[in-house]
Automatic annotation (TrEMBL):
Coiled coil: none annotated. Keywords: NAD, Oxidoreductase. GO terms for molecular function: aldehyde dehydrogenase (NAD+) activity. This is aldehyde dehydrogenase (NAD(+)). It comes from the Bacteria. InterPro entries: Ald_DH/histidinol_DH (IPR016161), Ald_DH_C (IPR016163), Ald_DH_CS_GLU (IPR029510), Ald_DH_N (IPR016162), Aldehyde_DH_dom (IPR015590), ALDH7A1-like (IPR044638).
Length: 512
């Protein structure tokens, strides 16, 4: 059956050919070949999006800088009100946007809706935050002096996002940045450019309804060369980038060279430790969702299971059975659990990884492969696979963005934690246990070295209220909840002398 989302595209203001550069309500055109966005669901062309030229980038930054001058003087709670209105519009368009996310990216419709829900949640969070951009006050060592700190906006924030969360990651960044008084320029993934245009249309409406200047929310499109214009640009004090470790190292180096700030959210190699006391009935769905959800294309996807030897065979059998129940196909059809990979390149990477596992000596217990025939015409549907593997193998050390799960055995919890931490990435981790000592050890300084450590839930599906991000080659950045907002602001320490003398700090004498 033909998939028709034309009504949703219309609701989101999308056309066959869309301009790709915008400062809000102003869209810039040019005659460069646009990006064609094909759906991995059925291979159909969804629409085209214009590519930003260097001249248009220049115009965009100038508009953003100009808007910043006005936006930074708008009281933070008033900025919060704009974000509140944005959240309201997202609620109205949740189904249409969720469907576009599902169709352009390939994740299940449920997960598409979940992604839009994350946008709504972060808007709510940001509205509250707009009255809580707190600094501390300190007691001065000098008499009749007062010390305090305040947070000021940074300026233009660049956001580079990935295809796998084509709308939520932008929202995490931009909703916080806006209440902090920053203006944003967003470069979405060239694999999901229509999601970018759809979001820009929504915020542009809010900005116009409130008579706000062009430049508070800007969109640019293209490949890494367009992103590079931002990373090299001294007028962009913060670049927040989500994507591969390879990309993150280039961004960090380029932004670091000009001593700018970068917020990096890079690859994960997330593991679940299944201990002897684990409640398997509860854990199996968590493990399977973690491994196959979003077709293994979350940075938080479960890639490794570290299983206690006493349970190993039992867990293995239960997993094999659970994988037999999985329905793979059109993600807009709600009876399917898993949709396609993003594109053909990704399918090739998946196949090459499976070959490598076998060549390394891995024992594949759930075979992979590419689906063919009716309903699979895009060529992007693959079988989630499981292999018994060794943590030290290069392929296991590497993040393959596909549904391949590696399982391994352990004897002592110390050994399990060592395996869990024995990768270059440090994003998410979990332990399945009903034993308080095991749980506390896992969460202690001797435990997981990741930015996220969970007990009795999987590695993926974090809520927006916590700080999101990871250590080591995951890049160290934190987005979303807790005090992640601080990276979008500059801190200023203020000392005020309200007395009639000038005592120096540290008791230094300087008599004239
Ligand atoms: C990502 O894959 O880049 O925790 C973000 C999760 C989601 C976000 C993932 N809330 O799985």
């Amino acid at each position: 059956s033909q998939i028709d989302i034309s009504q949703d595209l219309k609701t989101l203001g999308l056309k066959e050919i869309n301009h790709g550069t915008s400062t809000g309500n102003q869209w810039m055109e040019n005659d460069v070949d646009p990006i064609s966005s094909h759906s991995p669901v059925d291979g159909a062309l969804i629409g085209k999006v214009g590519v930003t030229t260097p001249e248009q980038y220049e115009q965009t930054v100038q508009a953003a800088q100009k808007a910043f001058k006005e936006w930074r003087t708008t009281p933070a709670p008033k900025r919060g009100e704009i974000v509140r209105q944005f959240g309201e519009k997202l609620r109205e368009k949740k189904e249409a946007l969720g469907k576009l996310v599902s169709y352009e990216m390939g994740k299940s419709y449920q997960e598409g809706l979940g992604e839009v829900q994350e946008m709504i949640d972060i808007c709510d969070f940001a509205v509250g935050l707009s009255r809580q951009l707190h600094g501390l006050t300190m007691h001065s060592e000098r008499p009749n002096h007062r010390m305090y700190e305040q947070y000021h906006p940074l300026g233009v924030v660049g956001i580079i996002s990935a295809f796998n969360f084509p709308v939520a990651v932008w929202a995490w960044n931009t909703a916080l940045a806006w209440v902090c008084g920053d203006v944003c320029i967003w470069k979405p993934s060239e694999k999901t450019p229509l999601c970018g245009v759809a979001c820009q249309n929504i915020i542009a409406e809010v900005l116009a309804e409130n008579n706000l200047p062009e430049g508070i929310s800007c969109l640019i499109n293209g490949d890494y060369k367009i992103g590079e214009l931002m990373t090299q640009d001294g007028r962009v004090p913060l670049v927040s980038a989500t994507g591969s470790i390879r990309m993150g190292k280039i961004v960090a180096e380029t932004v670091g060279k000009r001593l700018g700030k970068s917020l990096l959210e890079l690859g994960g190699n997330n593991a679940i430790i299944i201990t002897e006391s684990a409640d398997l009935e509860m854990c199996i769905p968590a493990m399977v969702f973690g491994a196959v959800g979003t077709c293994g294309q979350r940075c938080t996807s479960t890639r490794r299971l570290i299983i206690h030897e006493s349970l190993y065979d039992k867990v293995k059998n239960q997993l094999v059975n659970a994988y037999k129940q999985l329905r793979i196909g059109n993600p807009l059809d709600e009876k399917n659990h898993v949709g396609p990979l993003i594109d053909q390149d990704s399918v090739n990477t998946y196949l090459a990884a499976l070959e490598k596992v076998k060549a390394s000596g891995g024992n594949v217990i759930v075979e992979g492969g590419v689906f063919e025939g009716e309903g699979y015409e895009s060529g992007c549907y693959v079988k989630p696979a499981i292999a018994e593997a060794d943590n030290s193998w290069e392929i296991v050390q590497h993040e393959t963005f596909a549904p391949i799960l590696y399982i391994m055995k352990y004897k002592t919890l110390d050994e399990a934690i060592e395996i869990q931490n024995g990768v270059v990435q440090g994003l998410s981790s979990a332990i399945m246990t009903n034993n308080m000592r095991e749980m506390e050890l896992f969460l202690s300084t001797q435990g997981s070295d990741c930015g996220i450590a969970n007990v009795n839930i999987g590695t993926s599906g974090a809520e927006i209220g916590g700080a999101f991000g990871g250590e080591k080659e995951t890049g160290g950045g934190r987005e979303s909840g807790s005090d992640a907002w601080k990276v979008y602001m500059r801190r200023q320490t203020n000392t005020i002398n309200y007395g009639n003398d000038l005592p120096l700090a540290q008791g230094i004498k300087f008599d004239l």
